Prior knowledge:
Elements: H1 50-64, E1 68-77, E2 85-94, E3 99-107, E4 116-119, E5 124-128, E6 136-139, H2 158-166, E7 171-180, E8 183-191, E9 201-207, E10 213-220, E11 223-235
Antiparallel strand pairs: 1-2, 1-11, 2-3, 3-4, 4-5, 5-6, 7-8, 8-9, 9-10, 10-11
Helix pairs in contact: 1-2
Amino acid sequence: MPRLLTLLAAALLLSACGHGSPAAPTQPIALGPRLAPPPLPTAAVAPTDPAVQQRVQAAIDRLDKVSTLVGKVVFDESKDPGHVDHGEAKFTFRHKPFAARVDVQQSTRWFASGAAILWNGGATLRIKAAHVPISVEFGYDNAQVVSVRGYRIDQTDIFSMGKVLRAPGAVIKGMGTRRIHNEDLYLVDVTSPASLPGITHEIIGLSAKILIPTYREMYAGSAVVHKGQGLGVTLDSSIPASDFEL
């Protein structure tokens, strides 16, 4: 039941129990061109630019007030040169009482497709593979369920982007607006002490429509090692309690 989790992406994120015979893996999809930070120095990207800081703070404040999230997440993550792990999933989140569900739709791991993951905010995950009548419980840091780079579900979800942006000492530089996967995003380049080990900087996209972070690129030096985007995300809708049952 190899690694299941970078699909929240929030994130990310991503793999589950196997079934049946292998199917052809899906091909990774491009989440837009690699985005290089703009040249420095210019007033528009100065780390202390109050307009950039205000926009980022507004996104953090909006994220703090979200009661529910529903959408799709797509991600690519790489540990070794030449290999990209790809996944797509539906995600459903409820703030009170905390619950998050990921339904894997596609994965380069044939056995992950169709799996469902339930997380109640603690250190365990409940996972149910497609066509299997029972679910099983794993620690959220278990080697079987972390991403190919070893990331837990809470380290790649939408809310982890808020932690990176709000961390004391984070340097944030505005990059302007880009359209990626038909989503208008205001992009910022972030160097943050809250980034994951080995990540030198990130590019985070704030949705122009719903005003929260929905796009993320993680860099190790000049290489993009994780890229994810929430698509069609809706906020504060009513979600039946049965959606958080396996």
